[in-house]
Amino acid sequence: MDIRKAALVAFIAAVLSLVIPLWNATQQMRAITYSHPGWTLWVIPVAVLVTLFSALMPAFYFALYRTPRLRTAPVAFFQNSRDESDAELSVSTLLARVTDVVVKVWVVWLAINLLRVIMMPVIYVQLRDYALRAGGNPPELSAMIFDAIRMLTVQSCLFIAPFVVYRSRHASKRHEHEQAQEG
Asked: 113-128: per-residue pLDDT in tens?
């Protein structure tokens, strides 16, 4: 399977996998605004940010699919020759911009997930104390740590494709710069 077909399949899967989670998130945010009317001004921007964040990966895979001159080597993603049309160059520009945004946002998201894993013992102590004061059973630390590590692993796997494109783009720029200095 070539890269463009794989990108199209990943785009379709990403869009379809977001329908139910985004619907559930919207319903939960609406429930918050009903139970806490004063929070409406905060919930609306959060809902917009969640939707935009959710659209990043599908946008990346769509831009990857729309790049017509993809080859199997990742370094070839951003190689532009002088005889290509402006339409092809603009698609490469689209992929470059989407990749830059995805990588920058996803690095922050991965850092948040890593902090969640690191801070899990502290969070556990607070939740355990709260549960004991409320008369309930505290959650298991192992289950909480497992969930945090699983989330970090899944998000790291999602980050791989944009990171490969991002690094290959910068490697291509570095190679062009080195050739310009030699010549």
From this structure: 999 999 999 999 999 9
Q: How many CB atoms lie within 10 A of CB 85?
A: 9
DSSP code at position 55: T
Q: Residue 162 half-sphere exposure, CB side, CA atoms within 13 Å?
A: 27
What number of CA atoms fall less than 13 Å from residue 8's CA on the CB side?
9
Domain ranges, ordered by start, for the chain:
3-182
CA distance 85 to 97: 19
Q: Do the beta carbons of residue 151 and residue 61 sit within 8 Å?
A: no
Token readout for 126 is: 């607070």
In the chain, alpha helices (H): 3-35, 40-54, 56-66, 86-134, 141-182
Distance (Å, whole) CA 46 – CA 167:
31
Q: Tell me the pLDDT tens digit for each residue of 39-87.
A: 888 888 888 898 899 999 999 999 988 887 765 545 555 554 444 444 4
